[in-house]
Design goal:
Blueprint: E1 4-10, H1 28-39, E2 41-47, H2 48-57, H3 66-72, E3 74-78, E4 90-93, H4 97-106, E5 111-115, H5 118-127, E6 132-137, E7 156-164, E8 170-177
Parallel strand pairs: 1-5, 1-6, 2-3, 2-5, 3-4
Antiparallel strand pairs: 6-8, 7-8
Length: 178
């Protein structure tokens, strides 16, 4: 069975919205973490907001290794309206996103990533279909913005790995225990 892995950039107070506001000093350890996360993924689930922003940015980006990954990977977009644009390998998810994620997990392939999409990540975490949570936690307080972990039921986590990067970011990987 495939794993669903949520990868998020957070401020110390849990804000995931607009990470450019609190992620300022990207370093080699953060690059290595991102590289390790995407190396095992052959599909992603994104929300509509992330799709709209990313489909305008990533196709012409030279920020590697993520540009090559996200432009080539199979993208499943949780949306209630038709997709605009023609971003390669992107298709709208029809029906319930939790049921879709469960079906995707049962298929063959690598890990399934959830990147940046706060609402999708929350929905899948609350439904118990996420297997791992990989966080980059900035040494900054954002003070405002949507938080990743708000309004979730209690979850038991097991720490898989924790590292502090050279610029002070916490790279923490958790397994969701059932």
């Amino acid at each position: 069975m495939r794993k669903i892995v949520v990868y998020e950039l957070l401020s110390l107070d849990g804000v995931a919205e607009d990470p450019d506001e609190f992620i300022a000093d990207w370093d080699d350890a953060m690059d290595a973490e991102l590289g390790a996360v995407i190396a095992s993924q052959d599909a992603v689930i994104l929300g509509r907001r992330s799709y709209d922003e990313w489909s305008r940015f990533w196709p012409t980006s030279t920020i590697e290794p993520f540009a090559t990954f996200i432009n080539g990977v199979e993208k499943h977009i949780v949306t209630s309206s038709p997709l605009d644009g023609d971003w390669a390998n992107a298709a709208a998810v029809e029906g319930d996103p939790v049921a879709f994620a469960r079906r995707l997990k049962e298929g063959d392939g690598g890990d399934i990533g959830v990147h940046a999409s706060i609402s999708v990540a929350r929905t899948l975490l609350a439904a118990g279909v996420v297997d791992e949570l990989r966080l980059v936690i900035a040494p900054r307080i954002a003070g405002k913005g949507r938080r990743l972990l708000d309004d979730l039921p209690p979850l038991r986590l097991e720490t898989i790995r924790n590292v502090t990067s050279a610029t002070g970011y916490l790279l923490v990987d958790f397994r969701i225990l059932r």
